[in-house]
Amino acid sequence: MRWPWQRQSASGRLVVSWSGQTLSYVQAKVQANGRYRVEKIGVERQTGDRMESFLSRVQSLGLHGGEVIAMLRPDQYQLLQIEAPAVAPEEMRSAARYLIREMLDTHVDDITLDVMNVGDGQQKGASHLFVVTATNAQVREVVELGQSLQWPVSVVDIQENAQRNLQSAVAAKDGHATQASAALMVTSDRQALLTITANGELFYSRRLDLPEGFMAMEWSAGEAVDLDVDKGFMPVNEYVPDYSGSMSYDYGNSQPAAGAVTGRERSQRFLIEVQRSLDLWDRTWSSLPLSGLRVYAGARSLDLAVWLSQEMGQVVMPMDFSTILDGLENASADTLMTCLPLLGVLLRSESAKN
């Protein structure tokens, strides 16, 4: 089993995820111009099918690839951050395993673990590590599904890395590859992922739970905003967040004394958490000011960008992936929303060849 930073190259790739009885897949090949063209993309749900029937249905899709890569969804692993221990590189994983044992949801002996640096290593001060942990059972389930379908899984990647790859590719196309950029992507109705990258590396990641019904809410009733990418990112100086409380909220339909929490109130709480994360970055990484925030929310990407622009007082742009990948024009908005992270895995795999 190889983790994502240990890859082999191939012109054709099949990227899959298997989570919550849902299989998402992307099959693609590299073209002569160096860009990937997506040949097949889709979602298959097991629902009430027996596993044998489900596997037969998936096999009928005719999926194959020179290299098969599995991506874990956020509910399948933990991404922890620690100060890098002062040990030799070959001892880093063992040291990280010891340091994170009290932070795990399960026993340390029951996990598969790997580490990667936080950032690009060019900043002064103490260095930090991201520690990726998944239960042995979780990894085994994904690998065994691949074996059942005659897909020899060679790499296991994670969604944070996939999102980093997508936003880094977009930033490079925009001429901002060396600058810090933020991306907020909604690829399910339960959670959004906020990441900040620079120089193609991941510096910050935060998972934000979505309030119930968030994707169906009318986020804004205000006037339209002119989304001009050249206006850049403008910090909101008058915003003063309250850091005395918890960094997460219960978005459920709780009943406070004044009555039920409205959908607008729940969406505003989500908005506050996004702003807090950006403010935290601004204070912690003052040497790397953000060049911008881009968002993705399927068919509602523009709606989300407009709403955040209005509420935060800064230009927020929807992410456009048509400039970095081909063959997506026939994919439905719902399919693309679920499969988007898999496309990011493709980009990282290709970059490893250069």
Question: In words, what does this structure look like?
Answer:
With 354 residues, the protein is of the alpha/beta class. It has a domain at 176-325: Nucleotidyltransferase, domain 5 (2-Layer Sandwich). It is built from seven helices and 14 strands. The chain has helices at residues 51-59, 92-99, 136-148, 159-173, 263-284, 301-312, 333-351; strands at residues 12-19, 22-30, 36-45, 67-72, 78-83, 111-117, 128-135, 153-158, 180-186, 191-198, 201-209, 290-296, 316-318, 325-326. It has a six-stranded mixed β-sheet, sandwiched between helices. The chain has a five-stranded mixed β-sheet with strand order 11-10-9-12-13, with helices on both faces. Helix 4 (159-173) packs across helix 7 (333-351). The longest helix is centred in the last third of the chain and has 22 residues, at 263-284. The two termini are 23 Å apart. The model is unreliable at 1-9, 221-260 and 350-354 (pLDDT under 50).
